[in-house]
Design brief:
- Belongs to the SIMIBI class G3E GTPase family. ZNG1 subfamily.
- This is GTPase, G3E family.
- GO terms for molecular function: hydrolase activity; nucleotide binding.
- By secondary structure, the chain is of the alpha/beta class.
- About 30% of the residues lie in helices and about 20% in strands.
- The chain is built from 15 helices and 15 strands.
- It has a 7-stranded parallel sheet with strand order 3-2-4-1-5-8-9, sandwiched between helices. It has a 6-stranded antiparallel sheet with strand order 10-14-11-12-13-15, sandwiched between helices. Strands 6-7 form a two-stranded antiparallel ribbon.
- Helix 1 runs parallel beside helix 2.
- The structure holds guanosine-5'-triphosphate (GTP).
- The site of guanosine-5'-triphosphate has 17 residues, from helix 1.
Length: about 425
């Protein structure tokens, strides 16, 4: 598919991580390769594009530098991104295209936009093209997604409770950082000059657990080999989407005893519900050593719907995760049993598929203590026999999904959903 079409590299990374520096470096090192670049900036003036133009011989006059200003290519400028990439491809003068995203962009929707032209059956490209009136891309393909991580700011960003504004959408700093790490082919650990070896090794170990598939390269001032991020043929949508460490851990759980720099993971499973107030309290002060937690849970009193938990650094969000199959009408249950052959094995006579599966990834986690902590939030035998609706419940109420929308929390990466903060008031 890819040989005759132009390869596209997408650079993501937090504000100030070193995307523009990396871009300038590869432009200077591109040799005989003709590169076109597309720079996205949130402001009306594209500062990054000016920086690229200043420090390279690339220019917007010759149309090898395209600026997309005043919006984000992972949201409202998705159509403009496609059109710009299409224009550059049509010009036929370039060997590769490099896209620099804004610091608040999520890589998944950007990749989704760029791959819509290919056969992604579950993404329903037809609907997308009908809705937007945009023609599918044919002359180029997404080749490599790169995330630039600032080694110097990594821990601070993970622990920060800063909330960024992406054109009206609030994004938690730690959440965004984790999402950028979880969806990429190559991770550039930049600003290595500002961090000591032990810290670098620890960050690398964390990145490896969060994103086992990506190649991790250390860089200083974005000095990376062009061949490591351009025309690598590393990108594969389905692989990228299923490659996050938490997802792999949920699919093939194992207690990671062999810890590197104290980074471990484990899956917590329970077949009785959480007490809404005790679990909310636990989430209010979730242990700092947990870097990432994801999965679905059963909350007492919410017997129709599963709830998804997303923890990334200091950000804790919950979102609807679909109906429990046990809450569906009999004929829809039958359809679910046929679609998911493993479901029957896990079925409980009384509670059906209701239950909790959460993966926890962190540094220096005391697994035993965390399990006890989580178990303490489950209903006791006495509470199991009580009226669950009488428990205080400050979790958000989600609109009931259509029947038939059963939970598939283990397989779906809801990276683009908003979710709701759980720092709810008493
Ligand atoms: N010490 C050090 N500074 C670096 C390194 N890489 C980039 N910088 C500096 O960090 C600052 C931000 O770098 P940029 O390349 O503009 O970062 P960016 O990701 O494009 O930032 P935004 O466009 O704001 O999202 C600049 O002052 C760079 O000179 C590095 O490896 N080491």
């Amino acid at each position: 598919m890819s040989e005759e079409t132009t390869p596209v590299t997408v650079l993501s990374g937090m504000l100030g991580a070193g995307k523009t520096t990396t871009l300038n470096h590869i432009l200077a090192q591109s040799g005989d390769r003709e590169l076109a670049v597309l720079v996205n900036d949130m402001g009306k003036v594209n500062v990054d594009a000016d920086l690229v133009a200043e420090s390279s011989d690339i220019s917007d006059e010759e149309e090898e530098l395209v600026e997309l200003d005043d919006g984000c290519i992972c949201c409202e400028l998705r159509g403009d991104l496609l059109e710009a990439v299409d224009r550059l491809t049509e010009a036929g003068e370039f060997d590769a295209i490099v896209v620099e995203s804004t610091g608040v962009a999520e890589p998944l929707p950007v990749a989704q936009t760029l791959t819509m032209g290919f056969d992604q059956s579950d993404l329903d490209p037809t609907e997308f093209y009908e809705e937007t009136g945009i023609e599918p891309l044919s002359g180029c393909h997404l080749d490599t997604t790169v995330t630039v991580v600032d080694a110097h700011q990594f821990h601070e960003a993970m622990q920060s409770d800063e909330v960024l504004d992406d054109d009206g959408t609030e994004k938690h700093l730690g959440d965004l950082l984790v999402e950028q790490v979880e969806f990429c082919d190559v991770l550039l650990l930049n600003k290595c000059d500002l961090v000591d070896e032990a810290t670098l090794e620890e960050i690398e170990a964390t990145l490896e657990v969060l994103q086992p598939r990506a190649e991790i390269l250390r860089t200083t001032h974005g000095r990376v080999d062009v061949d490591d991020i351009v025309e690598t043929e590393r990108f594969d949508f389905e692989e990228a989407r299923a490659s996050a460490g938490w997802m792999q851990e949920l699919q093939q759980p194992h207690e990671s005893a062999e810890e590197e720099h104290g980074v471990t993971s484990f899956v917590f499973e329970a077949d009785r519900p959480f007490h809404p107030e005790r679990f909310a309290e636990l989430l209010d002060s979730f242990p700092d050593e947990v870097v990432r937690s994801k999965g679905h849970f059963w909350l007492a009193g919410r017997e129709d719907n599963a709830i998804m938990l997303h923890v990334a650094g200091q950000s804790v969000r919950v979102a609807p995760a679909g109906r429990w199959v046990a809450s569906l009408p009999a004929e829809e249950q039958e359809a679910q049993f046929e679609a998911h052959p493993g479901l029957e094995d896990e079925w409980d006579d009384q509670w059906g598929d209701r239950g909790t599966r959460l993966v926890l990834i962190g540094v220096e986690m005391d697994h035993e203590a965390l399990r006890t902590y989580l178990e303490h939030s489950l209903l006791t035998d006495e509470e199991m026999a009580a009226d669950w609706d009488a428990f205080e419940d400050r979790f958000p109420t989600f609109e009931a999904p259509e029947t038939g929308e059963a939970t598939d929390a283990d397989e779906s990466d809801e990276t683009t959903d908003g979710g709701e903060e759980i720092g709810i008031a008493d």
